[in-house]
Design a protein that fits this description.
The protein is 40% helix and 14% strand. With 113 residues, the chain is α/β, with parallel strands linked by helices. The chain has one domain.
């Protein structure tokens, strides 16, 4: 099972293997509180794409297309797929305020196909 959760939410035993998928460390989160199993920043959108998107809703569909193109060529995707095979539950964690228009949603959809 693949789940999505904001890093600012309390860790739960239901989270299983916890993977942070942001390139930058989330502001105000202590590493102990994050309870991460892995910080896979290599799977995050490139700095250029992240900066271009800027969490602007009108750019989300184009962001989705560009990020999927990046994911298609990203070896970290296989690493995350291997983690999914090895663990019954994997929770990908993100810091964005928008719960719908963010890279974790795109990544979840990409891995679920």
């Amino acid at each position: 099972m693949l789940r999505i959760k904001r890093i600012y939410e309390e860790p739960s035993s239901n989270d299983g293997f916890r993977v942070l998928v942001d390139r930058l460390w989330p502001r105000g989160v202590k590493k102990e509180r994050a309870a991460l199993n892995l910080w896979l920043k290599e799977i995050a959108p490139s700095n250029e794409l992240r900066t271009w998107f800027g969490h602007r809703p009108e750019r989300f569909e184009e962001f989705r297309k560009r990020y999927i193109t990046e994911l298609d060529a990203n070896p970290a995707v296989q690493q995350l797929r291997d983690i999914l095979k090895d663990h019954a539950t994997v929770t990908i964690l993100f810091a964005a305020h928008d719960l719908i228009m963010n890279q974790a949603v795109v990544l979840h959809d990409y891995l679920s196909q």
